[in-house]
Amino acid sequence: MKETPENILKRFWGFDSFRGSQKHIIEAVLHGKDVLALLPTGGGKSVCYQVPALVTDGICVVVSPLIALINDQVSQLKQRGIKAVALTGGISFEETNNLLDNCLYGGYKFLYLSPERLQQEIVQERIGQMNVQLIAIDEAHCISQWGIDFRPAYLKCSILRELHPEVPFIALTATATDRVSKDIMANLQLRAPLLVKDSFYRENLIYSVSYQENKNQRLVQMCQADGASGIVYVRSRRKSEELALLLSQKGISASYFHGGMSRDEKQKKLQSWLQNKKQIMVATSAFGMGIDKPDVARVIHYQMPESIENYFQEAGRAGRNGACAEAVLLVSAHDKEQLLNQFIKVLPDIAFMKLLYSKLNNYFRIPYGNLDEETFPFNFNHFCDTYELNTSLVYNGMRLLDQHSVIALSQNFSHKTTVQFLASKNALFSYLEAHSNEAFILQVLLRTYGGVFEYPTRINTVLIAKKAEVAESTVFTTLKKAEMDGIIDFQHEKQDMELTFLVPREDERTINVFSHKIRELNQLKISNIEAMLAYGENTSTCRTRQLLAYFGEKYSPVCGKCDVCLRKEKRSTNELKSLDLDILDLLANQSVSSLKLIESLGKDREVILQELQFLLEEGKIIITSNNEYTVSK
To answer: Distance between CA 81 and CA 72 in Å, rounded?
Structure first.
C-alpha cells in the first residue's frame, strides 16, 4: 500500500500538516492534473512536487534555472535520504551518460537540470526512456518574455510534453502577474490546468522606504543595530565589493557575492554566511534564489531594482522562519536618474536594431541575400570601437538578435580584464619615471578609472589603446610587464564570443519580422521602471498594499507597520505639525543639510527625514544643488 502525502511529509520533513494550498496542489497532481502554482517566497513550493513524486513510482524531472538552486535542492533531498541527481554545467559526456543511466536503473526519484541541459540530444533521448511520473518547472516566470529573468531556453521546456504526453506538469513561481501566468500556461502547453494562487501577504515582513542623503551612513547604522543576519542588494559587482569593505572597516562582519567570482569562491563565501560566520552578504540580484537561510532578519536594497517583481522576490528572502523581519529600500535624490541611465537609456529601439544588424553584416562582409553558416570569432570591444557604438546598447541588441534566432552567440562569452595597483603612490611615481615607455599608458589608465588602488577594476583595453594612441597589444604588453614588476595585479580572461548568422541577410526586412516584439518588450521594461519608481515615491498607500495590488490582490489589509502606516499614525499628532514648523523656521534664512537639522532639532532621524520628504511633496521646501534643504520661494 502506497504511503499518503501526510505520511511522506511527516517522515521526510517532520511536519504534521500542509500549509496554505499545498495539499490542494498535491491532490491535483496525484490525480494527473496540470497545475500552475503561484505561492509566496517561503511558501513551500518544492514540497508541492517533491511529496507527490515520493508517493508515486518513477522519477520526477525538475527544470530549474540556477546551479546554486539545483545543488541546494539536491543536497537537501540527499540529507533526507532521498535519491536525487543534478545535471549541471562542467560535466563531461561520459559522466552525463553515467548519471542518466543511474536515473534509468538506479531507483532515483529526482532528476534536476537546467533548461539549457534539456536541449542536449542525449538528455532528451534518455528522459524519453525513463519512467517519468511528474514534470516540475521551477521559477516558471523565466518562461515568459513578459516576466523577470526571461530565459529563452525555457521556451523549449515543452519538449518534455512531447516526450511524455500523459505525464502531469506542475509549474511554480513566486512572482507572476496575470499576463505572465497566461504566458506560462500557453508556452508549457498546460492542459486545463488548475491555477492556484495563495496570497503573497507576509504578516511578519515589514516593508519600508527610507529616504537618505547619505546611504552609507544609514546602511552602517542598520547593520550595527542588532548584529542580525542580512542581505544587502546592489546592482553592480564593484558596488558589492565596495560596501562589503565599508562594512568590514566599521567592524561589521561582511562579505560580497557576485557573478564574477569563481565557483569555489562563491561556495566558500556562501557557506560562511549560511553558518553565520559572516553577518552581512552584499550581493547582486542572482544571490539567494533557492537558498534556504530562514533567519535572515533584514534585506536592504541599497539601490533600486529594475522591477517590482525583482524587489518582491529579493525582499521575500527575509523572515522565512516566521520571525519579524524587515525589507528596507534606501532611496536618494539621484536614484531615478541612475535607474533610467542603467535600464531605459540602453534599450535598443527599432532604428538601432537595424543599424546594429547592418554593421554586423558589414563587419563580417556578408553579401545581401547570402547565408554563410561559418562561425566567426567576434571581438566585441573592437566592433563597438570600429563603429563608435555604445557597448551597453550593442550588448542588449545582440541578445535580442540571438533570442529571435537572427544570430547565434556562443554561450562562453566573457571578457574580463581587471587591474588593481599594488604599489604605493611613491613607488608608482618612481616606476613611472624609470619606465618612460610604459608611463603614458599607465597614466591614461589612472585617469580613466577611479578605485584602481582599492580593488580590482574592470577595464576596457580597446578604450585605453585609443586614448593612448597605441595598439591594443601594446596595452597588454605594458600591463603584463607592470604585473611582473609587482606594480599591479593584472587578470585577463579573454574568451570573446563567437557568432553565427542564422538567416540570409535582408537588412531592414530581417528586423521588421519581430519589430513589434521589441516595441512591446521596451514598453514593458519602461513600465517596470515606472512602477518601481512609483513605489519609492508613494507615501500615501501602505507598502504591503502597494506590492500586493501589483500582483492582483486588490483587497489586502493595511499592515500598520510600514513607514507609510506609521507616518499616518504619527501625522495626526500635534507633535509632527510642530516639528514641521520648527524645520521651516530653521530653513527660513539659510540652507541646511539633513545632518545639521537632526543635530539642531534633537529628534529621531527617521522622523525628521520623513517630515523632510513630506514637506518636499507639499512643495514647502526644496533641495539645493549642494544637497541642502531650503524654503521654497
So the answer is: 15
